[in-house]
Amino acid sequence: MKKLYIFTYLISLFISGCKSDDKVPVIDQRDSSVGTYVCDVKVENYTTNTLLRSYVDTIMITKSGRKEVQLSSAKKIQLPVLKVLDRDSYYGLFTTLYFEKGELIMSSGPDSAFYEYRGYKIR
């Protein structure tokens, strides 16, 4: 009987000494945004609110650094590096990008030419 008590005591010591590691996985919110998007682009004059031109462009979004995303255009339009604002939003120099129900919506333009991108992910 003494051996049984000693055995159960040792088992209880062993169990109490085991620590459970509740590791929380680190999820990068940029993962859902990374990909290729086909966008309708409208270029408007900001002051007169007139449409200057429109075209279709392909935008590639990749991770850059710890909290940024890099945008590249198939039409070689220079786009800024954007920083994470919140779960579905990014911001940069004269540029905001956000996702609404799976649609990419980006507006950019420091001068009278104002660019508006709207598109969906294809890859």
UniProtKB/TrEMBL annotation:
The lineage of its organism: Bacteria, Pseudomonadati, Bacteroidota, Cytophagia, Cytophagales. This is Uncharacterized protein. It comes from the Bacteria.
